[in-house]
Specification:
With 329 residues, the chain is of the alpha/beta class. Helix content is 35%, strand content 29%. It contains nine helices and 15 strands. The relative contact order is 0.16. The model has no long low-confidence stretch (mean pLDDT 97).
């Protein structure tokens, strides 16, 4: 493919350097042409490490570059709305790291800006682009595991010793619900194809980590008595799993958001569904580019990101008030 979507990276975050920039490099459609930091030396160092042609010492310079088609934003959560809107108003398409904003109101402002600017805005949930989730939905639709009765998801890791980490600043959108709880929440919405009606969450709020939720466990109520039970944390052993329970069987994902293979358990036994080894970040970049070029409709719209933030808003309110919170449609 001769045509390439030209990407600019707004910030030198670890996720950008470790995963997204290499993913764009492995994609069929994209090329990273510039990176910006508020520290020119930092962006120059990152550019040299990752063979990026241009380095800028300010975000504004990157947005002013007319050789850039799309911006990827891996900044701390509280900066997502500000810089996404500035990028879109500069005529750039935007891939914003999850969670897309601090709340649904901010996410709606971003969605409105994308519409008025005529640009594509997407939230960077890379796992959704792997075909394993289409396969899972096909198995559920086939009736092989019967009627759905519930889901259970986890995403935990232990980084609590890094006290200066941006994840532990409450005003910056710190906490495990924002950082990793958003994964099982979005997965349940994706698999069930509907929005939850209420949330109940209990959390470990740590004074030594600015009272963010270092661990949270919750229930999201969907229709027909189906629920997602989940836990997420940044002060616990690592895991990222998903179980989908039906009346006649279940689907087990040992690495739900970072892997692909999964197991189907039925009365006939257990089989492993082998999935192709694909770079989720490259798949995400290719999907994004094809939407920009008008080759396909967006699979996940800005409105989907707003809906996900409504759920996270309810989860946070529940955790801090110790109450069940209804989610408005």
């Amino acid at each position: 493919m001769s045509q390439k979507l030209r990407w600019g990276i707004l910030g030198c975050a670890g996720i950008a350097k470790r995963a997204v920039i290499p993913g764009i490099g492995q994609s069929e459609t994209g090329i990273v042409t510039a990176i910006a930091s508020r520290d020119l030396a930092k962006s120059q160092e990152t550019a040299a490490q990752l063979n990026i042609p241009t380095a800028y010492g300010s975000y504004e310079e990157l947005l002013a570059d007319d050789q850039i088609d799309a911006i990827y934003i891996p900044l701390p959560n509280h900066l997502h709305m500000e810089w996404s809107i500035k990028a879109m108003e500069a005529g750039k398409h935007v891939l914003c790291e999850k969670p897309i904003a601090l709340n649904a109101q901010e996410a709606q402002r971003m969605a409105d800006t994308a519409k008025s600017a005529g640009v594509h805005l997407a939230e960077a949930f890379m796992y959704r682009y792997h075909p394993c989730y289409d396969r899972i939905k096909d198995i559920i639709a086939s009736g092989e595991i019967g009627q759905l009765r519930g889901l259970h998801g986890t995403f935990t890791f232990n980084n609590a010793g890094d006290s200066k980490n941006v994840r532990y600043k409450r005003e910056w959108g710190g906490g495990s619900l924002y950082d990793v709880g958003c994964y099982p929440i979005s997965a349940a919405r994706l698999i069930l194809g509907e929005e939850p009606q209420a949330a109940s969450v209990h959390a470990l709020l740590s004074p030594e980590h600015d009272n963010v939720d270092m661990m949270a466990a919750g229930i999201l109520e969907f229709s027909n008595g189906v629920a997602l039970s989940f836990d997420c944390g940044m002060w616990a052993a690592f895991r990222n799993t998903l179980e989908i329970l039906g009346t006649e069987g279940r689907i087990e994902l040992p690495s739900a958001f970072l892997g692909a293979n999964f197991f189907v358990h039925t009365k006939d036994g257990v089989r492993e569904e082998q999935q192709p080894t694909l770079n989720q970040y490259a798949l995400q970049a290719d999907d994004f580019a094809r939407v920009v070029w008008g080759q396909q409709e967006a699979r996940f719209t800005p409105e989907d990101a707003v809906a996900n933030m409504k759920v996270i808003d309810a989860c946070l309110e529940s955790a801090y008030t110790r109450s069940r919170v209804t989610i408005q449609p």
